[in-house]
Amino acid sequence: MTDIGGLISHVQNAYARCIDNGNLEEWPDFFDDICTYKITTSDNYSLGLEAGVIFANSKGMLRDRVASLREANIYERHSYRHFFGQPWIVSEEPDAVRSETSFMVARIMRDGTTDVYATGRYIDLYRMNGGAPKLRERIVVCDSSRFDTLLALPL
Amino acid sequence: MLDQVTQTTHNPSLTAWPSDGVTRVPYWIFQDRGIYAAEQKRIFQGPSWNYLCLAIEVKNTGDFVTTFVGDTSVIVARDSDGELYAFENRCAHRGALIALESRGNAKAFTCVYHAWSYDRQGNLKEVAFKDGIRGKGGMSPSFCMEQHNPRKLRLAEAFGIVFGSFSNDVPPLEEHLGEEIHSRIGRVLGGRTPVVLGRYTQALPNNWKLYMENVKDSYHASILHLFFTTFELNRLSQTGGIIVDPSGGHHISFSAIDTAAGNNKDYAEQNIRSDSEFKLADPSLLQSFKEFPDNVTLQILSTFPTFILQQIQNAIAVRQIVPRGVDRTDLHWTLLGFAEDTPEQRMIRLKQANLVGPAGYISMEDGCVGGFVQRGIAGASGEEAVLEMGGADADSSESRVTEASVRGFWKAYRAQMGL
Q: Do B346 and A50 touch (CB under 8 A)?
């Protein structure tokens, strides 16, 4: 159990480091080719409502998200700092591990304003991929239904 | 180096509207607390129809939602007679909120403070210890519960959208909206059963009117939103137009597929960012299904003061603008599908939902641009915005290179505010 937890924790830290350091082009590589990435709210999730603020069901859609942020969308320069709790291993099969991890994300704006932008949990399904886990599914369930101004960078 | 500046204070009066009609909008209108307070009285509690909720959200007996009309918290509930009722979420006793949840099902509403209780129509039914205890204390025998109710709202529905008004002076909803607006709500929602796919709130760092201006501004759409334009979802050279109702307050901006509009020369000449090359790795995002008998791929409809119905391809949503102060606004999104959707159609709606909301490929910029204005005008309350694109009127137009529907908003706003 500890090994699995440690492995997933390791991948999560790499994931945070990727986004927080601004290497968004590498972010899709944390996912499997066939994958689901969704950002939704706790209310939607508990009511079983399907739609959220971001929905992708292919790695291509994740790459498009990054390309659009880089080339198309207009937003003020900002960065995130992710903080994670310890991953809770929900279930463990030889090649599929389900886990839940709390997160907190601070947003640092161009002028230095730093706020808690989002808190919530990742509800994840990993393909263990021989020790190099890939996300088959990540549902980002934000505790709050309120998003300040816009959500550009992924959570 | 400049050693003389041009004195450009256009409008030293911070209370009177500029003399140039609706081609000028004074910036104090987005900043002034007195204006904000006057809007609550004259617009939100005045002769207007305000979006409250969807009828499907309060389908069964006892279902209720709490919503807002301007600053005012409002309860909408369905009673056992099958009818909807709406009343202020304010206890008639000491003013506390009566309902604390966003939605639920209730037999009655009881204020937590002193347990004064209301039925689903907003009538005060019980006052705790009304007759005192052992003959002592209690309310005066002359206290009449019928005279102590939260204010009630008039209600009306258009194709499952519930509107409410505090005023008896506003004409019936259908007449108020007019046939053109009413029928185009029906175009999107009529004859089928909406299903809520998801909800969220976008907190905007700006005055509510700046968001409504943005919604009505067909001029910016293909310039600010590169994603929109590059994938031919919307170019000003597509066929389309705007419809502004006679009051000015309601509008529709629409575009339709026009296979002849392949010429990008107009854009190239303007040196606008919109001309850049950009391809999707997974174009399934933009695969849509034919949902309407016409070729209209985009229909943004707004009604005064704060309601928007959106059709962007198959992404259908309603948006409710809730002012939260001079420079803060909540935008409540409700994404819709329909009970009649096939699983494939539902998946297309989920994918296209990426276009809208705080992370929307299109809507993202609308979340920040109002804040750019609010901050840009911070020291310029005596200055004014220029709204001359497409002329000076507020009429319907076949061109979307116009600010006519923004001028329409100000026309309706000024009439209602007496400015």
A: yes
pTM score of the predicted model: 0.94
Percent of all residues in chain B with a pLDDT value above 90, rounded to a whole number: 80
Q: How far is CA A18 from the centre of its chain?
A: 11
Chain A, window 30-89: residues with a beta carbon less than 8 angstroms from a chain B beta carbon: 39-41, 43-44, 49-58, 60-61, 63-64, 67-68, 71-76
Lowest mean pLDDT, pick from A40-49, B262-271, B307-316: B262-271
Among A64, A38, A53, A78, residue whose Cα is nearest residue B230: A64
CB contact under 8 A, B200 and A148: no
Nearest to B23 by CA among B384, B395, B337: B384
pLDDT per residue as tens digits for the range B261-305:
544 555 555 545 444 566 788 989 988 999 999 999 999 999 999
Compute the count of residue pairs across chains A and B with CB atoms less than 8 Å apart.
122
Q: Is B317's pLDDT higher than 90?
A: yes
Amino acid at B144: C
Q: How many Å apart are CA B105 and CA B98, to the nearest integer?
A: 14
Q: d(Cα B335, Cα B3) in Å, to the nearest integer?
A: 55
Task: Give me the amino acid identity at B267.
Answer: Y
Check CB contact of A116 with chain B, cutoff 8 Å.
no
Shortest Cα distance, chain A CAs vs residue B244, angstroms: 28
Q: How confident is the model at residue B236 (pLDDT cuts 50, 70, 90)?
A: low
Query: Which residue(s) pair with B174 in the sheet?
Result: none
Instruction: Using a CB–CB cutoff of 8 Å, tell me whether B230 touches chain A.
Output: yes
Q: Is B47:B170 a contact under the CB 8 Å cutoff? A: yes
| DSSP code, position B44 | I
